[in-house]
Design a protein that fits this description.
Layout (H helix, E strand, L loop, with lengths): L3 H4 L4 H20 L12 E4 L8 E4 L39
Bound molecules: zinc ion (2 copies).
Amino acid sequence: MATVDDENFQAEPYEEGYAAIVKAAQEWRAKWPNHCTKCHGWGGKMWPATRHEPEDFDFCGAHFPDICHRCLHSGLTEDGEGPCTNCGWNFDDGEPML
Ligand SMILES: [Zn+2]
Ligand SMILES: [Zn+2]
């Protein structure tokens, strides 16, 4: 059933936001061409808290722990802790995603 809201729905803000993120992601990849493609430079995956589980962070295991996920240099500690001595990354930057 069509409603007035459906007819007045504006797609532009979403489309613009999408294009901005795609552009930001392209620029980020150009800046960090060697980034870890498994975690996209984030060092792992953040799982949002649910009703049953607290917020959790799943570390990326694509390479040795001392390898930085953004520049792929051996810049982290052997326990995988930042900041990266090469680029300063510390689980705080990754490829912009939707
Ligand atoms: Zn990674
Ligand atoms: Zn780095």
